[in-house]
Amino acid sequence: MARRDEDKPSVARTRTTVLENAHKVSVPKRGVTKRRAASTSSRAKTKITSSRQVQLTSSRTLPKRKLLPRSLMAKTKPARIHKHKLALLIACHNEEMVLETTIKSAVASGQKIEDIFVVDDNSSDKTREIAVRVLGVLNVLTVPRSGKAGAVYQAIKVFGFEERYQWVHISDGDSIFGEDYFRNYRRGLTGKEYVVAVGFIQSLRGNWIANYRSLSYTYSQHVMRRFQSWFNMISVLPGPITSFRTDIIQYLDFRTGVIAEDFDVTLQIYRMGLGKVRYIPDAICYTQDPQNLRDFCKQTFRWQRGFWQGVTRHRIGTKLQSIDISIGYQVFQMVLWLFEFGFLVPYTMFETGKWIILPILMVLDFTVVSILTIFSAIVAKRYWVLAALPYYYFLRYVELGIFLWAFVEIVILRRYHSTLQKGWVTEGRRYAIDKAALREAHG
Questions:
Q1: Which residue has the higher pLDDT, 406 or 420?
Q2: Residue 421: is its pLDDT beyond 70?
Q3: How far is CA 150 from CA 96, 254, 257, 384, in A?
């Protein structure tokens, strides 16, 4: 395109030069033979061609702005392409139980149905059939088994989100969007410095594990995530509630082969300095949690292994970026807690003989946990999370043990460093959503 723009003014100037010098070309008199006329014409053409070549050659050394007249510059301005605000991409595999509910909740919360897309990771059930019936065949893509990250990457390219939309929201097949989720989300997509946005993740009403997760989510996001947002150090972009500004997608690698792709993409954004992360707490999305302890442990292992993979892969702690401080603080908390209860308290009791120290510390800690639980229940208006108090420490210790186990596997034993995640980690663990949970999600 640049070459053509340079040629146009050069040709125009050449034509002007030729016309100005036209009177210098001798016209053959009558009686001149046809052969002489042809020779004269040939020399004139050679002169014009030579002149044009000189003009073209010299024009390349001149600044473009001096060569292009205003009229031509106006014509060469790129046409403005209108982009829609936000697309929703739902990645799923065998989600026939929940997919239609997810799509309907998105529409009810303010997302236009023509801006909703589904990528089906080669499901063996009726997932694709349901998606096509609700959205139409043009908004549904089925890919060979690739895992979530691979399926999302292919969908971004096939649907052309980078050319058609300003933002793309990635979500899971079990996401139930709260009332006004997308209306609130769009209002939060402001400021040129923000390249990623995250909403508020919450557990669907369910069993004892959902109660525990709801307690953890409420406290961590109302307190910790707000703090992280103020200092631009949000440490993870949760899969179901994250949107990317489409002009940064070209810099991101969704096919790294890691276990937790959302955490790895988070670290990529910070390491490359692409921009800030916007937190939109009014955009609440509900998601399903494991239904038994076995699945809870599997999911936690995946998260913690992915965490340590990201820490080692991106060398967290070796730089003074905000993400290093954020993750370093989280690890320090865990290490400090282990040091206190695993070494300092037993050592003090053994040296002083005051065995009452441990019960006193446990009562104090339980008091703090109870206050946080009551606070979370009031803020979230989910008073049933108080039921998680009796078994809070049990699940907390399970998570802590998995955290340490994953550290040994990834950092010390160097396992899972070449893992290519192709399985769908939620496969076989979906359940039908009851009416009570839907009423709570939709207000």
A1: 406
A2: no
A3: 21, 7, 9, 38
Residue 26: predicted pLDDT: 43
Residue located via tokens 């997308």: 182
Q: 294, 299, 288: which is closest to 99 by C-alpha?
A: 288
Cα(188)–Cα(190) distance, integer angstroms: 6
7 vs 236, higher pLDDT: 236
Cβ neighbours of residue 410 closer than 8 Å, sequence gap 6 or more: 305, 308, 309, 312, 416, 417
Closest to 9 (Cα-Cα) out of 47, 48, 65: 65
CA-based nearest residue to 215, from 382, 57, 80, 48: 382
The pTM score is 0.77
Share of the chain above pLDDT 70, in %: 78
Structure tokens at 426: 């939620």
Q: Which residue type is seen at 134?
A: V
**3-class SS string, the chain:** CHHHHHHHHHHHHHHHHHHHCHHHCCCCCCCCCHHHHHHHHHHHHHHHHHHHHHHHHHHCCCCHHHHCCHHHHHHHCCCCCCCEEEEEEEEECCCCCCHHHHHHHHHHCCCCHHHEEEEECCCCCCHHHHHHHHHCHHHEEECCCCHHHHHHHHHHHHHCHHHHEEEEEEEECCCEECCCHHHHHHHHCCCCCEEEEEEEEEECCCCHHHHHHHHHHHHHHHHHHHHHHHCCCCCCCCHHHEEEEHHHHHHCCCCCCCCCHHHHHHHHHHHHCCCEEEEEEEEEEEECCCCCHHHHHHHHHHHHHHHHHHHHHCCCCCCCCHHHHHHHHHHHHHHHHHHHHHHHHHHHHHHHCCCCHHHHHHHHHHHHHHHHHHHHHHHHCCHHHHHHHHHHHHHHHHHHHHHHHHHHHHHHCCCCCCCCCCCCCCCCCCCCCCHHHHHHHCC
